[in-house]
Amino acid sequence: MRRKVIAGNWKMNNDLSGSISLISAIKNGLSEKGTDNLVIIAPPYTSLETACALIKDTEIKLSAQNMHFEESGAFTGEISAGMLKSAGCEYVILGHSERRTIFSETDEIINKKLKKALSSELLPIFCIGETLEERESGKTNSIVERQISSGLDGISESDFNKIIIAYEPVWAIGTGKTATPDQAQEVHKFIRNLIEKIYSKNSAEKCIILYGGSVKPDNSAELLSQNDIDGALVGGACLKSYSFLEIIYSV
Ligand code: PGA
């Protein structure tokens, strides 16, 4: 039985005081009822250290939203795995579609980042997903297959087992258009079969595959009840504690 995972990707939102308020509200909400789900938050870099202190002694885990694949050096504006570890991160989101499209990250760069995160003992949340044009031209499976096989190139099965995959159709991110539960389930099943081909049935069965793209309290229960959907990577709806908590408690 795979544990459900609800991860909140804050993107470029919340300064320090906004981060403190949001985390306090999430903590309060969770302390009332508790949860068996794994809850992860990914605030901006400037809030990581404070977030780490605030979630100490809670079940909430901390993630960064990106990192560079080098450890240190002349990379102005970048941040390394070691720096994220020292700020208290356990997870890091890699390959988000906004990184791929706005910041021109290729499958090759994402592969290097995944390897660096794993060797630095950060657990990657590895994002993949097709654009609307790709879906409409029937290329969803081939795009997802390319992103997965290039991203995981050279990664051992034991390292792969530490990765969470997030399927986020680009056309559903921040648009209010969600994939239907059937559409999402179909791709999640395809991904799980692909993992079985690349690694093994055991790894495929254990692999956590999140859905992301306009997940909201009113659609999360149905999406997360699908066989191969193990949780959600939530953007917009994680910025309000009540909607993030409602999603957590919808499964
Ligand atoms: P959204 O973002 O929930 O606002 O669509 C999801 C994501 O980008 O991870």
Strand proportion, as a percent range, falls in 5-15%
Low-confidence stretches: none
* Total tally of structural domains: 1
CATH H-level name... which superfamily? Answer: Aldolase class I
Give the averaged pLDDT, no decimals.
97
Structural class: alpha/beta
Describe it.
By secondary structure, the protein is an alpha/beta fold. The protein has a single domain (5-248), classed as TIM Barrel (Alpha-Beta Barrel). The chain has helices at residues 16-33, 48-55, 81-86, 97-102, 107-119, 132-136, 140-151, 157-160, 181-198, 201-206, 217-224, 241-248; strands at 5-9, 38-42, 61-64, 91-94, 123-128, 164-167, 209-212, 231-234. The two termini are 14 Å apart. Bound molecules: 2-phosphoglycolic acid (PGA). Residues 9, 168, 173-174, 212-215, 233-237 line the site of 2-phosphoglycolic acid (PGA).
